[in-house]
Amino acid sequence: MAALIGHPVDFQDYLPSMKQTLGAEGFLVELCNGFRLLMDADKGLITFESLKRNIMVLGLEDIRDDDLVSMLIEGDLDGDGAINQMEFCILMLRLSPGLMDESKQ
């Protein structure tokens, strides 16, 4: 898996097994739940502030601010500085080698 600004990331891709276990609809529901966990409730978006506030949920409490900004840039397709639900789902699918391989087949 790619590193975040020079920091190696140990990555286990659980998304394919989640999709297989939950089915397509259940999997999408869980992606939406993940988005809601990280989003700013008032804005309905994942912002730098909401990501920083909720980062402990991901077990990444030691992550640097510039790495959080890189995460936002990676997922922000419309350039508004935040990640909406569709962008989050697209990002999760893009970051899953297993799901990307499955979609190619």
TrEMBL record:
The keyword Transport is assigned to this record:
no
Keywords noted in UniProt: Calcium
Give the Pfam families listed for this entry: EF-hand_8 (PF13833)
Q: What GO molecular function annotations does the UniProt record carry, in alphabetical order?
A: calcium ion binding
Q: Which InterPro entries match?
A: EF-hand-dom_pair (IPR011992), EF_Hand_1_Ca_BS (IPR018247), EF_hand_dom (IPR002048), KIC/PBP1/KRP1 (IPR044205)
Asked if the Swiss-Prot or TrEMBL record annotates the protein with the keyword GTP-binding, the reply is: no
What are the coiled-coil residue ranges?
Answer: none
> Where would I find the EF-hand domain in this sequence?
63-98
Could you identify this protein by its name?
EF-hand domain-containing protein
